[in-house]
Amino acid sequence: MQPATLCYLLRNERVLLIRKKRGLGKGKFVGPGGKVEDGETPIEAAVREVEEEICVAVNDPSKVGEFEFVFGDEPKMFVHVFRAETFSGEPRETVEANPRWFDFENVPYDEMWEDDRLWMPHLFSGETFSGRFRFDAEGDELLEHELETDIDCRT
Ligand SMILES: Nc1[nH]c(=O)nc2c1ncn2[C@H]1C[C@H](O)[C@@H](COP(=O)(O)OP(=O)(O)OP(=O)(O)O)O1
Prior knowledge:
Layout: E1 2-11, E2 14-20, E3 29-30, H1 42-54, E4 57-58, E5 62-71, E6 74-84, E7 87-88, E8 97-103, H2 116-125, E9 129-135, E10 142-149
Parallel strand pairs: 1-6, 5-9
Antiparallel strand pairs: 1-2, 2-3, 2-8, 4-7, 5-6, 9-10
The ligand Nc1[nH]c(=O)nc2c1ncn2[C@H]1C[C@H](O)[C@@H](COP(=O)(O)OP(=O)(O)OP(=O)(O)O)O1 binds near residues 5, 6, 34 and 115.
């Protein structure tokens, strides 16, 4: 399964999301991230993607969760989720992404992947989690989900 990352920058009860300009989930608000490339660890990929997408240097992100993303019967991605409280540089718009800060209580779930509302509260409260989310073949509707919290998170 294709490994991928999401890396959430958190500061003062706010989270940085991007409006994705291309690729899977184009037009949605998501966390910065993308596919893990050959020879990279998930943590290296997470740091690289944040730099590429919003020009921010992330310091030592911690892994907080992971999930399988399934379209129809086809496992699509295995996503490693990170959080980072220390980073430098002002988030900037790039060809890939338009960054924006949101208060935890104003996250725009209606403009995000449907699974995000299930697990992001755990990210905000500092819990770890593991999930499996099965969408229809087009990726439009969440059909089934499993979610476990308090998992042992290794990178
Ligand atoms: N259910 C889900 N909820 C969510 O919020 N983000 C998800 C998700 N399933 C996958 N993602 C994220 C993981 C990853 O960051 C992104 C998919 O990455 P892309 O295919 O856009 O990869 P890249 O940006 O690396 O694209 P390329 O430039 O084509 O390699 O979608």
